[in-house]
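User: PLP-dependent aminotransferase family protein. Structure?
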Amino acid sequence: MLTISSDDLRRHGGPVYRGLAEALAEAIDGGRLRPGDRLPPQRELAYALKVTVGTVGRAYDLLMRRGLVRGEVGRGTYVQAGASGETPAASLLAPPGGDTFDLSTNSPSPTAPQERLLELMAACAGEPRLLGALRFYPPVAGLPDQRAVAASWLASLGVPAQAVTTLFTGGAQGALAACLAGLARPGDVVLTEALTYGGIRSLASRLGLHAEPVAIDAEGIVPEALAQAARHSGGRLLLLSPNIHNPTGAHMGTARREALAEVAGREGLTIVEDDVYGTLLPERPAPLAALAPERTVYLTSASKFLAPGLRIAVAHAPPPLLDAVLAAQADLALGHSPLSAELLCRALAGGLAEEAAVAQQAEARARQELAGRLLGGMQLKRQPTSLHLWLEAPEPWSSAELALALARSGVIVSPGERFQVGRGAPPRAVRLSISAPHSRQLLTLALERVAATLGSGAGRRMPAI
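Assistant: Predicted structure:
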């Protein structure tokens, strides 16, 4: 049973509400409060701790901004699935005598030619020019020759990039951080998909920004909803992923992109186009960076098809957006690793990157077909070459209940709450990262457990916590 004393509220120093928030956060992190647990009603907790209801309310709001809990109108405040560890169900025990399959992370399947990667690493290790680059802080945007190679890659993706508009960052997360920090100020509203990559919500909160959800459909953001959200919230920064949306797999057609570009121009929006999954598409429509070039920052990386451990991303930004992003990049990280940038550039110039992307597409297609066969009777949203799929929870399961039931079966997935922006009703779905297992044989075992769990109905009548 969770116990919090008055001493706990003052142990951390500072305001009482912050001490209460820290005590609850420690309980979540330590597993004493688990995903799906309901926090005490504010009045009851205030009475028990002899504090004001406002103090408890501020503590709960702070936990919500950190992404640790969620509020449901008329129902209360609940521990967010995925809040107590790096994986959504990290605190749950694996089933006795069985292995656990982690389908919670969108890592690429191990298809990149390992020998060629090793050759590139060895070649870089013997390059005196790189040794010189490592002795000094590199230019924030990157070395000129590396920027030229990266710009050529972006141009092949339809982005109107030149070396002078191209920059490297420490992974796509670093690029997103630089964009949000450089293009918005604390207190600003950032418009984004109602369901989106979970790192956006936490990053916006850390920077003092408010993430405003915009309605999506089978093609992503709805233009009319974007216009309404921009006018209602005053937000002028739009962040979206047109290619293989995470988590739903939605893919945006040309007409929808043109409509969004028109709305952005009319409402004066700056666009951040996150295209880390675009490399998984054999064919792709023109990016928003080509349709609205004066107002769009574009970013992508090699993480989803080559090597996520490189922690390198490439972005394009037109002036004066480029200056703002570079200034933020300098403040946040000073730059990036020129060694990682060199590995990526050599992979691009030597054909390894294209080879790895094609291999990843083929493997993703095979795994999606496998998932379609094994989960054929279920409500799935997916793209043919996506690393993940979106599984809708059958009645009466909630997303959190399904995630917990699957965890007890030995399959860890990402519950829909992890991707939710705003306080509306949580999505009744989970994301399965089918690229994560090292082989199709292991994926088969994992998906068979998913099918068995759903077929048995185990967990539908889980006891109240």
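The chain is about 45% helix and 15% strand. The mean pLDDT is 89.
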